[in-house]
Amino acid sequence: MYLERFDSAARGPLRHQIMPIYFAPDQIEAAVRLGLPDRAAGALARFEPWATAARHPWAEAVLHRCHALLADDDATAERHWRLATDAHADANRPFERARTDLLYGEWLRRARRKNEARTRLRGALETFDRAGARPWSERARAELRATGETVTAGAPDLIALLSP
């Protein structure tokens, strides 16, 4: 369903030529999580020329994140995760850096590198909490718990506490 919404937006009446490129990193992540690497590779093929030509640290960081998600082996994935992290240092997009840290932390946890995973996941959680991005915060909390760390519940959603 999620990927179909990308396709619909790319072909719909409000489409714009940049939208399929701009949404490609999200589409890649969704396709990888759904076990659809061919679909992810197609989105990467659209995104990579644009990201390379853009010559912007954000585009470089996200491009490496996408390559890490699609890597065939751990050494290649590790190299791309590190390059993504390095590029984020100059990108000034904390939310995107947190997304990379979350994905990298998930990868590290699956590789049984729990201490390294915790560092990434804590940073991601802090950024998501500051941004009020509850679904992202909950995902980071769940990953931290999976490393064996005790994690406190997030701050209450103050908007939800307001009476109608």
Overview of this protein structure:
The protein is mostly helical. The protein has two domains: 1-54, no CATH class; 56-150, Alpha Horseshoe (Serine Threonine Protein Phosphatase 5, Tetratricopeptide repeat), CATH 1.25.40. Helices cover 75% and strands 0% of the residues. The protein contains ten helices and no strands. The protein has helices at 2-11, 19-22, 24-33, 37-54, 57-70, 74-88, 94-110, 114-131, 134-146, 158-161. Helix 3 (24-33) runs antiparallel to helix 4 (37-54), helix 7 runs parallel beside helix 9 and helix 8 (114-131) runs antiparallel to helix 9. The protein is globular and about 40 Å long.
User: What is the arithmetic mean of pLDDT?
Assistant: 88
Low-confidence stretches: none
Largest sheet: none
* Number of discrete helical segments: 10
Strand content: under 5%
The beta-strand count equals 0
Protein name: Helix-turn-helix transcriptional regulator
Organism: Spongiactinospora gelatinilytica
